[in-house]
Every structure is written in structure tokens, then in C-alpha cells.
Amino acid sequence: MQAWLCENPVGVDALVWKELPTPQPGPGQVLVRIHAASLNFPDLLIVQNKYQMKPDLPFVPGSEFAGVVEAVGEGVRNVAVGQNVACLAGTGGFGTHALAQAATCMPLPAGFPHVDAAAFIMIYATSHHALVDRAQLKAGETVLVLGAAGGVGTSAIQIAKAMGARVIAAASSEEKCALCRSLGADATINYSEHKPSGSLRDEIKKLTDGKGPDVIYDPVGGEFAEPAFRSIAWRGRYLVIGFAAGPIPSLPLNLALLKGASIVGVFWGGFSRQEPKASAAALAELAQWYAEGKIKPVIDSTMPMSELKAAYAHMGSRGVKGKLVLVNPGA
């Protein structure tokens, strides 16, 4: 097999494409021939040694991939050799083959292409866990999605609309706002016109008739967090998804008191490990929604696996709409 190897986590430039022995699956594991792998923000952090999970060196980055099962280890019952699967393994995706725990693999129904499948689990499982489980979103409520044109943001728009919510999508350009509207967003906020230090709060107030959003979905953090949280409705739920802007914000807790609001952590990885049955049920529901056409990953572009470094650069430019997917030749 071949793969991008991280031997020293000092950044993308240190990654090296290498030939490695093809591993054999142990108990509970599967060997997957990778057809497609998506690029996620944690994939950048992990090669910079900035992610909460720090794998032993050397490792192959790439948290999420899809392909065909080539071998199964002892005790594997949920997938079989020759089956198409999507896997969220944390590492291993940026190569031609990878081992994954069978429990982290989602069997793919017919008609579910590998490119879509490789861009599916992380964003949709996160947004489903956030909106359905953690926020207990109800039809008719208003959701403000920050960073709405990115991978998790686009998935949040689609899931919120599938649940009957009103969606306000915030993004950094008119082009990205147009994408959000095409996905069903009822209103949009352009950060270039309404900055966190400027009129962002006023625009949120205007679009919610002064009430504020019932749920705020925040994968951005940084300077956006406090003005958004100050705008939340009574009994609102502020979903902490991630910190794509960089700095981890500090929110004045008196705001939670005054608004009767909840600050809710969302970590799908922990949820899937602690509550595997609930996680599997959520993935099954998401697969059904995909089959029904309610949700579909937004693919910014596909690139050859050999162009991983260029894909990282594109993601770092903040120009990505939806997900970037790497594909292997002949896949």
C-alpha cells in the first residue's frame, strides 16, 4: 500500500508519500481499499500537533474515508468482504488502504457513491448529534448557523430544514450565502457586511424580529462567539461545535444566567464511543434521509490523492464551500 505519512507533526509540508506494508486486520478490524477520503479541519490540526487526539508517530492522517472491504478480522459481523463502507477512523484515510474498527464503519446502501460517502459521517453525524440530540430542536424554532458554507455548516442547514426549523445562515461572502440559500436557508448574513465587531448583532436581531435564535450552531468560535451568544433567545441553546477561527473564546457566564440559556458541548466522537447504539441509530436515520434526498453532501471539488498538500492549501485559504474529497486513481 501507499500513504501520506506524518513522521513529525510540524505541518503539512512534512508529510511524505511512502510505500508501506499492507496491514492485516486484527480482531474487530477491517481492511478497506480506499476509493475516496475527505479533508476535514481536524486533519489539518492533527498534522500540526494541535488536535486533542495525538496519535503515536508515525501515522497516516485522514479521518474519514470510503471504499471496499478487502479483509475482516475475527469477530466482525456488521460488514463483509466486498462490501462498500464509509469509515470515520480518526486516522489512516490519506492512502490506498487503511485499517478501521468495524464499529466505526457504516455499510453503504446501493446508490451511495464513494465520494459522497467519504464526506458524510463526520459532518452529518456531528450535526445530527448537535441538533437532534443535544439541542432537542423543534419544528418552527430558529437556528443560526455560523460558518454555514463549510462542511458541518452545510450539513446543519440541511438537517435543520429536514426537522422543520427556520434557518439563518452566516457566511463570509455573497457567493457562500447564495450556496446556503440554495440548500434551504431562509435568510443569510454576510460577515463582510456585518462583522462581529460591527452590525452582526443588529442583523441577527432584525432577522429574528428581536427574539433571537433558539439555537446557535457554532463551529467557528473566535470573535464570533460572544456577539452571537449575546443575541440568543430566552431558553436558547448555544452549540459548541469547534473553533475554525482559531482562538477558543471565553464567554461571560452571566449571559447564560440572564438569558436562561444553555451552553452545550457537541463531541460526536465521544458520543459514538459512550453511546454506540444511539450513534448507530443516528447513522441509520441519516442514511435513510440521504436515500430520501433530504440531505446530500456539498462537494467543493475532488482532487487526486497525490495532491493532498494542494488540497490542504485550498482548505487553509477559507475558500472551500462544503467538502474537499481526495480520490485514488481507478477508484
Automatic annotation (TrEMBL):
<dbReference type="GO" id="GO:0016491">
    <property type="term" value="F:oxidoreductase activity"/>
</dbReference>
<dbReference type="InterPro" id="IPR011032">
    <property type="entry name" value="GroES-like_sf"/>
</dbReference>
<dbReference type="InterPro" id="IPR051397">
    <property type="entry name" value="Zn-ADH-like_protein"/>
</dbReference>
<protein>
    <submittedName>
        <fullName>NADPH2:quinone reductase</fullName>
    </submittedName>
</protein>
<dbReference type="Pfam" id="PF00107">
    <property type="entry name" value="ADH_zinc_N"/>
</dbReference>
<dbReference type="InterPro" id="IPR036291">
    <property type="entry name" value="NAD(P)-bd_dom_sf"/>
</dbReference>
<dbReference type="GO" id="GO:0008270">
    <property type="term" value="F:zinc ion binding"/>
</dbReference>
<dbReference type="Pfam" id="PF08240">
    <property type="entry name" value="ADH_N"/>
</dbReference>
<dbReference type="InterPro" id="IPR013154">
    <property type="entry name" value="ADH-like_N"/>
</dbReference>
<feature type="domain" description="Enoyl reductase (ER)">
    <location>
        <begin position="11"/>
        <end position="326"/>
    </location>
</feature>
<dbReference type="InterPro" id="IPR013149">
    <property type="entry name" value="ADH-like_C"/>
</dbReference>
<dbReference type="InterPro" id="IPR002364">
    <property type="entry name" value="Quin_OxRdtase/zeta-crystal_CS"/>
</dbReference>
<dbReference type="InterPro" id="IPR020843">
    <property type="entry name" value="ER"/>
</dbReference>
